[in-house]
Amino acid sequence: MTLDLFGEEDLQQPTRIDRIGQQAWVLRGFALPWVEALLAALDSVLLQAPFRQMQTPGGYIMSARLSSCGDLGWTSDGLGYRYSPIDPASAAPWPKMPTTFYEIAEAAASAAGFADFLPDAGLINSYAPGAKMSLHQDKNERSYEAPIVSISLGLPAIFQFGGFQRSDPTQRISLFHGDVVVWGGVDRLRFHGVLPIKPGHHPVLGEQRINITLRKAG
Ligand code: SIN
Ligand code: FE2
């Protein structure tokens, strides 16, 4: 007699979902089914628009290195933060947003209750060990109606998710390769940041964490 209690489907882990706000969610491992296509697409974006260091309007150099893709890319310099259709490093338009980025963005947003999410900006951050992102709000976008979809790859990070004032207490959430965070609606303007990345080696990405945030900026 064959015991056929478990089909293939039963053995797959369901996606674990952690709620971190009224309209904010961590979708554990959500990007993993796309990860190979995602990394290939990322390579091609980075060939056209390599990571670069950026200066803040306050005169600091950001410890994470940045790139962008899509209709609008995000840049920072001594004059301020802005979205622009042109990559100042190449004086050409930013690379096109890869199909995989759209697919993950739409699927993750929809799993978090935001239908029909169509991003026009993909910001890509690379963190070497020690790099961090101070608490900030994402508010350079024209409207706050659309959510932010944030994909983590490579080394783990501790993500801080706070309130609406910089001084509000923050939740600390560990993010791993393939995790996707979605925040929008009443949580869209929450302060958030990344603590300094701990040294380590990731089997796929080496000594690096990459974060991709997909946004509707224009
Ligand atoms: C960001 O807030 O732009 C990046 C967040 C992250 O790296 O997880
Ligand atoms: Fe942000």
Can you give a write-up of this model?
The chain has 218 residues and is an alpha+beta fold. 14% of the residues lie in helices and 33% in strands. A seven-stranded antiparallel sheet has the order 1-2-13-10-15-8-3, covered by helices on one side. The chain has a four-stranded antiparallel sheet with strand order 9-14-11-12, with no helix packed on it. The chain has a two-stranded antiparallel ribbon with strand order 4-5. It starts with 7 loop residues before the first helix and ends with a strand. The mean pLDDT is 94. The chain binds succinic acid and fe (ii) ion. Succinic acid is lined by residues 125, 133, 150, 159, 192, 194, 211, 213. The site of succinic acid has 8 residues, from strand 14 and strand 15.
Give the topology.
Layout: H1 8-11, E1 17-21, E2 24-27, H2 35-48, E3 65-70, E4 73-77, E5 80-84, E6 86-87, E7 92-93, H3 99-111, E8 121-127, E9 133-136, E10 148-154, E11 157-161, E12 171-175, E13 180-183, E14 192-194, E15 209-215
Antiparallel strand pairs: 1-2, 2-13, 3-8, 4-5, 6-7, 8-15, 9-14, 10-13, 10-15, 11-12, 11-14
The structure holds succinic acid (SIN) and fe (ii) ion (FE2).
